[in-house]
Each structure stands twice: as C-alpha cells, then as structure tokens.
Amino acid sequence: MKTQGEIEAAVCDAMSRFEQEYTGRGPKDIHTFLIGDLLVVRLQGVLTTAEQRLVRTLPIEKGRDLLKQVRFQLIETARPVLESIVQEITGTNVLSLHHDISTLTGEEVVIFTLATTALAREKKPR
Asked: Could you report how far apart the first and last alpha carbons of the chain are, in Å?
C-alpha cells in the first residue's frame, strides 16, 4: 500500500506523461491533492506554442472557446486512459472526471471523483 504522498506523486508523473504524449508538451509544474474521495490535479504551463498563438491572434472569446473545445474533446477521447491510470494508482474506480483550462494563465485542472477514499498507509516516522 502506498502513502498519500506516493499516490499523489505517481498521479503527477502519469499526468505529465499523458500531457506529453497527447499534446506534445508536458506541464511546467504539476501538483496533485488527494482529499478524501477527490483527486485534484493542477497543471501549470500546459499551453503549447500553437495554442498560445491561437488564443492571442483570434478574437478573445473565439480563441478561448476553440481551445477549450479542443482540450475538452481530447480529455473526453482519452477519458478511459485517464480513468485507468487513476484506478491503477489509487486502487479504486473513478466515478466522474471534471476538467477546465484557463487560456489566460495556461493552468489546467482535472478533478477525479473516486468511488471510495483511496487507501493510503500512514507515512513511517523517521
């Protein structure tokens, strides 16, 4: 059984690999928070150069909406992969997945609702 920190670190690694494989670029920074039956993943600096340029050159609402649609479709298409990754790491099924991205800050948030609280062992005292 893994500690909470080990679970969070494993999810960070897996999500970074996912971003690299699916968008061609990994995040500049990533943090995962396991809170009861919620797994919150916060990725920063995820926009590719092409996405940044698209958002800057189109009218703000059009660029934002287009980018969000593309990212939404990517997540929906890859949902089985993401759910499988999280299930393998946490040892529990994923009930739902929520996602959003900011075109202004390049921050992306993915929230997984788990079927049960992930079992984590207590960290051993030193």
From this structure: 18
Residue 31 located in a structural domain? yes
- Position 121 in a domain: no
Burial code (b: 16+ CB inside 10 Å, e: under 16) for 112-122 equals bebeeebebee
Count of domains forming the chain: 1
pLDDT tens track, the chain, 126 positions:
889 999 999 999 999 999 999 888 899 999 999 999 999 999 999 998 888 888 888 887 898 899 999 999 999 999 999 999 999 999 999 999 999 999 989 999 999 999 999 877 777 666
Provide the CATH number for the domain around residue 15.
3.30.980
pTM for the whole structure: 0.90
Q: Could you tell me if residue 63 is inside a domain?
A: yes
Q: For strand 94-101 and strand 107-114, is the pairing parallel, antiparallel, or unpaired? A: antiparallel
Residue 52 lies in a domain: yes
